[in-house]
Write a structure and sequence with these properties.
Largest sheet: none
Length: about 100
C-alpha cells in the first residue's frame, strides 16, 4: 500500500499531466468561474432566482450584490486577522511570564 506521501506525489503528477494536456484552459475552468461568487453571472442568477427585480435592473443589482459580498468578506478577514494577532500577542505574553 502506498504511503500518504506517495499518494500525494502521484496525485500531483496526475494534476500536472492533466493541465499540461489541456489546450483550452479558459474553457476547462469556465463552468467553475461562472459558478463562483466572484463572477457577475453568479450574482445575476442569484438575483434572477429571487424574482424581485426587473430583467433590465439585474446587471446593476448584480454589481452591487457582488460588491457587498466582497466587502463582507474583507471585513470578516480583517476581523479574523485582528483576533489572530491578539491571540498571538496573548500567547507570547503568557509564554514570557511562564
Amino acid at each position: 500500500m502506498a504511503s500518504p506521501e506517495q499518494r500525494r506525489q502521484a496525485a500531483l503528477i496526475a494534476v500536472h499531466t492533466s493541465w499540461a494536456n489541456t489546450t483550452d484552459r479558459r474553457a476547462r475552468t469556465e463552468a467553475a468561474t461562472k459558478a463562483s461568487p466572484v463572477s457577475l453571472e453568479y450574482w445575476e442568477e442569484v438575483i434572477r432566482a429571487k424574482g424581485t427585480h426587473r430583467e433590465e435592473d439585474i446587471p446593476a443589482a448584480a454589481v452591487n450584490a457582488r460588491s457587498a459580498e466582497m466587502r463582507r468578506r474583507a471585513l470578516k478577514s480583517a476581523q479574523a486577522r485582528k483576533r489572530n494577532k491578539h491571540a498571538r500577542q496573548e500567547a507570547a505574553r503568557l509564554a514570557a511570564s511562564a
